[in-house]
Amino acid sequence: TSYNSSTGKFTINVYGVTTSNGGTFHIKLASQEIAGEILGDNLNDGFFDIDGPNISFPNLNSTPKNYKIEFNINFDGTGAYTITQI
């Protein structure tokens, strides 16, 4: 994971994603609570929703693919993300 302070975005590269090894993810925010808060996406619109369902990688099949995830998170748990195949 890297953070670009000039854009305010985090970047994560994920390698070898297929339909058989998951194909989804979420962002877990650290918290003093045991569970913390999970950011998913209710509408699959590129915006985080607290306690939303997992986010799916696009165009998955059995052939491994690599992706770049870029996102920002605001103090109130809102934010946006993009997923790009690399």
Secondary structure elements and pairings:
Layout: E1 2-4, E2 9-17, E3 24-25, E4 27-29, E5 37-40, E6 49-50, E7 55-56, E8 65-73, E9 79-85
Task: Describe the model.
With 86 residues, this protein is mostly beta strands. It is 0% helix and 48% strand. The chain has strands spanning 2-4, 9-17, 24-25, 27-29, 37-40, 49-50, 55-56, 65-73, 79-85. Strands 1-2-8-9 form a 4-stranded antiparallel β-sheet, with no helix packed on it. It is globular and about 40 Å long. It starts with a strand and ends with a strand.
Essential attributes:
86 residues, mainly beta, four-stranded antiparallel β-sheet, three-stranded antiparallel β-sheet, 48% strand, globular
Strand content: over 45%
Arrangement of strands in the largest sheet = 1-2-8-9
Q: Categorize the overall geometry.
A: globular
Helix/strand-derived category reads mainly beta
SSE pattern: EEEEEEEEE
Uncertain runs are none
Overall mean pLDDT score?
90
Radius of gyration: 13 Å
Q: Give a short account of the largest sheet.
A: 4 strands, antiparallel
Separation of termini? 16 Å
Q: What's the assembly state of these chains?
A: single chain
**Total helical elements:** 0
The proportion of residues forming helix, as a percent range, comes to under 10%
Q: What is the strand tally?
A: 9
